[in-house]
């Protein structure tokens, strides 16, 4: 049977914008839409401009730029939106990351020479078009006055490899390049990652398309380490005011929070770092509406999109009013604006909020952890003696992710209790809460884990176990390990959260050896997971108590009485 795919090209141009083909320093021209306030048509006024540089088709419904433009132009900003090099209507080679500093600089330079520009430029956008903002910061154009990166990372390599050790293979993240970074268009197709070798199906896809993704080829199966900021790192550039817009349920939120915490502590940058953190995921679905109904799904409903956009663009517009227009004082901005899931919005001087404390939950009674929730205990003290629990990682029957798209995890927000009931998942839960437990800050997990396979993964999910037995995700993290490690101790970064566990609920933890199909399962043989032709089950062991206590550490906000 021939391989089938759908090729998605550029949508029609937007009527209320003017497209320009803007020349870069090497002669390549980038398709750039300009949306101007109505005053420009009548009086020839000049305005500050907000630049958005993205690879997802500036005219598509997916990025709804034409609707965002109405909010920006109504506040007196020109909005400039550009297809990045090699994507959709823009020229040049289709290769992510590497040319973005130069192209960002040249695009800003073009803006400041337009008659409608007052010479001040900001940047705005999500994910990859948050990255293009950091690339422009690295270019150090003097007209760039402020940026609002949303759900992103300054260096995308920190998403796939967050620390010194290797990370599990985030298949969903890596295959993004096989769909979006082949040529100017996007390619939609479905593969079956259970068929081995996994890489063969991608080869079939590229053969059918007639083109390849260079970045995918470097990441799979080579697993090359690819810094996406190969020149001057933006953190070493001239500081600019930054409003970090983070989602507690964003699948790359941990990387974004590492950016924020580093800059908030770096002299020169610290004074101009601001944080907006909401109970949202990467696609801007909200915990308050999860699981999302069709009427509230802004991805398909124009009415839902209209309700969502003011909260999406509003923080950026307020920020630009301070740092681009100068019509509001700096004192009007809270340094930190954050949402406590299930309990509303807060402001604070710092993150974590003042008065927060670390609390440790010790993994105890591991023999009970192989059963369904509540399983073992998250207790206030460790077991005095060392105990252990075993589970089998079977690559041919991996633990299901339950979400088809982790970028939109709140759209589905599934109940994780079926996963917890599997015999290849360990589950621990704390006591039923009598008072609210407000989590506000970083979470981390310290485990003692060994495995019989040469290489194995550990996936951890912190969940809210409700009185009716439903388990909803709060935070997650993962680690890749080998039996050659000198120590069985592993730390797993679980990112940050703002979340209220309500009375009658329990804090719970799930541990597994796979999370499929979001992550590519280790084959159990020590071979490269992309090219391994076969797989074998392996046993993993958690030790806790005595000299090997395992623990979950959370940050608890002071009670506010609400």
How far apart the termini lie comes to 60 Å
Briefly note the structural class of the backbone. alpha/beta
Helicity, as a percent range: 10-25%
Total E-strand runs = 23
Average pLDDT across residues?
96
Name the poorly predicted regions. none
Shape: globular
Using only C-alpha atoms, the radius of gyration works out to 24 Å
What does this structure look like?
The structure is a single chain. The mean pLDDT is 96. The chain is of the alpha/beta class. It is globular, with a radius of gyration of 24 Å. The protein has 13 helices and 23 strands. The strands form three sheets. Strands 13, 14, 15, 16, 17, 18, 19, 20, 21, 22 and 23 form an eleven-stranded mixed sheet that branches. Strands 2-3-5-4-6-7-9-10-11-12 form a ten-stranded mixed sheet, sandwiched between helices. The longest helix is centred in the middle third of the chain and has 24 residues, at 302-325. It has helices at residues 38-43, 65-74, 100-112, 128-139, 157-160, 171-174, 176-180, 199-209, 214-219, 253-264, 302-325, 409-412, 417-420; strands at 6-8, 18-23, 29-35, 47-54, 78-83, 117-126, 144-150, 186-188, 242-247, 273-278, 336-340, 344-348, 357-364, 376-379, 387-393, 425-429, 437-451, 455-465, 471-482, 489-501, 506-512, 538-544, 551-556.
């Amino acid at each position: 049977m021939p391989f089938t795919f759908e090729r998605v090209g550029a949508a029609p141009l937007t009527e209320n914008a003017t497209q320009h083909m803007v020349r870069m320093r090497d002669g390549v021209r980038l398709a750039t839409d300009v949306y101007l306030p109505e005053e420009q048509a009548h009086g020839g006024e000049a305005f500050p401009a907000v630049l958005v540089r993205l690879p997802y088709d500036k005219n598509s419904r997916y990025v709804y730029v034409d609707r965002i433009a109405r909010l920006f132009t109504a506040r007196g900003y020109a909005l400039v939106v550009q297809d990045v090099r090699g994507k959709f209507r823009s020229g040049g080679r289709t290769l992510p990351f590497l040319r973005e500093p130069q192209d960002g600089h040249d695009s800003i330079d073009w803006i400041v020479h337009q008659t409608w520009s007052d010479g001040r430029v900001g940047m705005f956008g999500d994910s990859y078009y948050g990255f293009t903002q950091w690339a422009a910061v690295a270019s150090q154009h003097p007209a760039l006055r402020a940026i609002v990166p949303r759900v992103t990372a300054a260096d995308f390599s920190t998403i796939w490899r967050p620390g010194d050790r290797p990370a599990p293979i985030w298949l969903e993240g890596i295959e993004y390049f096989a769909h979006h970074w082949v040529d100017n268009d996007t390619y939609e197709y479905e593969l079956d990652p259970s068929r081995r070798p996994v890489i063969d199906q991608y080869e079939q896809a590229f053969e059918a398309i007639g083109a390849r993704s260079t970045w995918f080829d470097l990441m799979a199966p080579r697993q090359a380490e690819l810094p996406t900021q190969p020149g001057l790192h933006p953190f070493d550039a001239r500081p600019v005011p930054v409003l970090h817009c983070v989602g507690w349920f964003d699948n790359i939120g941990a990387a974004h929070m590492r950016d924020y915490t580093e800059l908030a502590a770096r002299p020169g940058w610290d004074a101009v770092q601001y944080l907006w953190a909401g109970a949202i995921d990467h696609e801007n679905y909200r915990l308050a509406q999860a699981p999302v109904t069709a009427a509230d799904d802004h991805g398909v409903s124009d009415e839902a999109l209209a309700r969502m956009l003011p909260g999406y663009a509003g923080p950026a517009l307020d920020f630009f009013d301070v740092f681009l227009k100068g019509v509001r004082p700096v004192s009007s901005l809270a340094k930190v604006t954050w949402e406590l899931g299930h309990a509303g919005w807060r402001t604070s001087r710092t993150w974590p909020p003042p008065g927060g404390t670390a609390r440790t939950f010790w993994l105890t009674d591991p023999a009970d952890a192989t059963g369904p929730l509540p399983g073992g205990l998250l207790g206030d003290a460790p077991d005095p003696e060392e105990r252990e629990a075993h589970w089998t990682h079977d690559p041919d029957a991996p633990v299901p992710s339950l979400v088809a798209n982790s970028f939109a995890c709140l759209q589905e927000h599934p109940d994780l209790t079926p996963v917890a009931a599997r015999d290849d998942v360990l589950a621990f839960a704390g006591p039923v809460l009598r008072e609210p437990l407000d989590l506000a800050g970083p979470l981390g997990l310290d485990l003692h884990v060994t495995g019989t396979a040469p290489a194995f993964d550990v996936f951890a999910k912190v969940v809210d176990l409700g009185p009716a037995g439903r388990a909803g995700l709060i935070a997650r993290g993962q680690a890749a390990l080998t039996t050659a490690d000198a120590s069985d101790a592993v730390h797993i970064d679980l990112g940050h959260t703002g979340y209220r566990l309500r009375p009658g609920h329990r804090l719970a933890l799930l541990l597994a050896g796979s999370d499929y199909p979001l992550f590519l399962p280790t084959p159990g043989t020590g071979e490269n997971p992309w090219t391994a032709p076969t797989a074998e089950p392996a046993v993993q062991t958690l030790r806790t108590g005595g000299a090997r206590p395992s623990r979950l550490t959370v940050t608890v906000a002071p009670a506010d009485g609400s």
